[in-house]
Amino acid sequence: MLFGLVWGMIWTLITGLTSYTNSVVFFCICRALHGIGLAFVLPNAIGIIGTLYQNGSKKKSAVFCLVGAMAPIGAALGSIFSAVISEKGHWPWAYYSNSICFAILAVATYIYIPNIPRHAAPEVTFDWLGSITGVTGLVLFNFSWNQAPAVGWDNPYIIVLLIVGFLSILAFFQIEKRVKYPLIPKEIMNSHILLILSAVGFGWGSFSIYVFYFWCLLMNINGWSPIHTGFTYFTFALFGVIAAFSVNVFIRRVRPSYLLLAATCAFLIGITMLSQTPPHQMYWHMLFPQMVILSFGMDISFPAASLVLSEHLPKKHQGMASSLVSTMINYSMSITLGFAGTAEAQILKRNTSTYKGYQAAMYVGVGLAVLGCILALVLHTCSYIWPHQEEVDLQIHKFEDDSDVLENSEPVLHPSRGGDNSTAKV
């Protein structure tokens, strides 16, 4: 976690310094490297929380909800601060200030975050071949979809990279079947977890389209300034915090599948309302209600999914909970913009209306949100067909954690035997 913060601090600083190079390519490379630092921070933070707090405890639920509440607060503050700097000052300071925040967090992490004992077996090795093929496949597949709207699908290198990326992903799955220590342990990949991740991925993919075209609509069509548009994010901040902590109230009273179904429905309602929002309409008519609804979508889905996965995994896989959720969210948010951009580009070839192109992209988001709702409904239905599966999983992982404690404990003299050679495990 400390490494991720230091890495993010360095590359955020370098990103700001790219203003002196006037190179868009170098700027994009620095932004990508900056993201590696964040990819280290969140899974490790969730893993630490999952290890420190007992499964099923109210404190653990509250802390997970607090982490979820930070997202809308950070989005609102970042939007306002960067908008003010870009309009009133020198834009690189948006990155310099971010680098300063990373430095402060790194120092606080070094001082206050406790060392967590290793729960994985010491002989576990890293799957380098699976990592290389998996990352290569995902990157090339993503790049192809996001580059195609700009250069066109008739460009040969787009098709070549798409095929190579797809083959790399197939190779990754074949490698993972054969290696002793795969990147994603076989025992945690079941239909229950796959349904959760898929529903969350489709929901957040539609939300990514919403966010991008929300700004496009307000700034390019309605003519709003960045500051004016950024201030609308305070709606996300206020209602996002309320939504995140509502998970702590409901998670012990209703099935988690209820919460995920409600979250995906919120994603669907929000993107559908944006697709039907006419240009130049007053903010309070449709934009404000849809932002309130979407606040519950994003800030119920992440804490609920992370909490459910964390409580389904033993301590040695706690970091995997957030890693799976955050990877699915970030990747789906990235690649779905390529889907939406392709739809927009195709409409603009036949229609000169910019708004019609935006609307076509939003309809792609509606379709993704519908898929998320369907998967969440399937998950909810399955929770009734196999009503005790979650309890069985929790008992299995509790037994595994207790077994780890027994295996790692030292033998001590039994107090009732006066120092004889009999031993007992503690």
User: In which order are the strands of the major sheet placed?
Assistant: 1-2
| Radius of gyration of CA atoms, rounded to a whole number | 24 Å
Strand content: under 5%
Shape: globular
Unreliably modeled segments? 388-426
CATH architecture of the largest domain: Up-down Bundle
Tally of DSSP helical segments: 14
Number of domains: 2
Name the CATH homologous superfamily of the largest domain. MFS general substrate transporter like domains
Largest beta-sheet details: 2 strands, antiparallel
**How much helical structure, as a percent, in the residues?**
over 70%
Give the end-to-end Cα distance, rounded to a whole number of Å. 32 Å
- CATH topology of the largest domain, anyone? Growth Hormone, Chain: A
Description of the molecule:
There is one protein chain. 77% of the residues lie in helices and 1% in strands. With 426 residues, it is mostly helical. Strands 1-2 form a two-stranded antiparallel ribbon. It has helices at 2-17, 24-52, 58-88, 93-112, 128-151, 156-178, 191-221, 226-231, 234-250, 256-275, 287-312, 318-350, 354-385, 389-408, and strands at 412-413, 423-424. The protein contains 14 helices and two strands. One of its GO terms (cellular component) is membrane. Pfam families: MFS_1.
What order do the helices and strands come in, and which of them pair?
Layout: H1 2-17, H2 24-52, H3 58-88, H4 93-112, H5 128-151, H6 156-178, H7 191-221, H8 226-231, H9 234-250, H10 256-275, H11 287-312, H12 318-350, H13 354-385, H14 389-408, E1 412-413, E2 423-424
Antiparallel strand pairs: 1-2
